[in-house]
Amino acid sequence: MAVEKYLGRLSGPLLDRIDLHLEVPSVPYEELSKLTDGTSSRTMRESVDKARAVQAERFGRAGGVNSRMTPREMRKYAVPDAGGRSLLQTAMDSLGLSARAHDRILRVARTIADLEGSENLSEGHISEAINYRTLDRKLWER
């Protein structure tokens, strides 16, 4: 109840300016105490470093990152395949997303593709990026 009250205070335009909306569920002790070989911090860091290098090369400048793509750069580098376009259109229509949310989804999807080492923006990348917009869905469900 308190979470819903808090979410009610957040405006759509404010949420549009936040790239990732995530709910992080509590993790039971049993899961935390398991000894598993998940992705190590070192491996994750290497993946991020590679993606950042791809982005710096793409934009021709150090510090050039997907989150700062201009509209012109987005039309060049953040173009999803046919399945991705269809999925994005469906999400826009069904969730009532704004143009700003649309652009943020494309930027996040481009980053996901970079982390995977993919030049193309697929339906899977778009799907994952849309899933990071949980607050958009919660506001729509009210």
Automatic annotation (TrEMBL):
<dbReference type="InterPro" id="IPR045006">
    <property type="entry name" value="CHLI-like"/>
</dbReference>
<keyword id="KW-0547">Nucleotide-binding</keyword>
<dbReference type="Pfam" id="PF01078">
    <property type="entry name" value="Mg_chelatase"/>
</dbReference>
<feature type="domain" description="Mg chelatase-related protein C-terminal">
    <location>
        <begin position="39"/>
        <end position="133"/>
    </location>
</feature>
<dbReference type="GO" id="GO:0005524">
    <property type="term" value="F:ATP binding"/>
</dbReference>
<dbReference type="InterPro" id="IPR025158">
    <property type="entry name" value="Mg_chelat-rel_C"/>
</dbReference>
<protein>
    <submittedName>
        <fullName>ATP-binding protein</fullName>
    </submittedName>
</protein>
<dbReference type="InterPro" id="IPR027417">
    <property type="entry name" value="P-loop_NTPase"/>
</dbReference>
<feature type="domain" description="Magnesium chelatase ChlI-like catalytic">
    <location>
        <begin position="3"/>
        <end position="31"/>
    </location>
</feature>
<dbReference type="InterPro" id="IPR000523">
    <property type="entry name" value="Mg_chelatse_chII-like_cat_dom"/>
</dbReference>
<keyword id="KW-0067">ATP-binding</keyword>
<dbReference type="Pfam" id="PF13335">
    <property type="entry name" value="Mg_chelatase_C"/>
</dbReference>
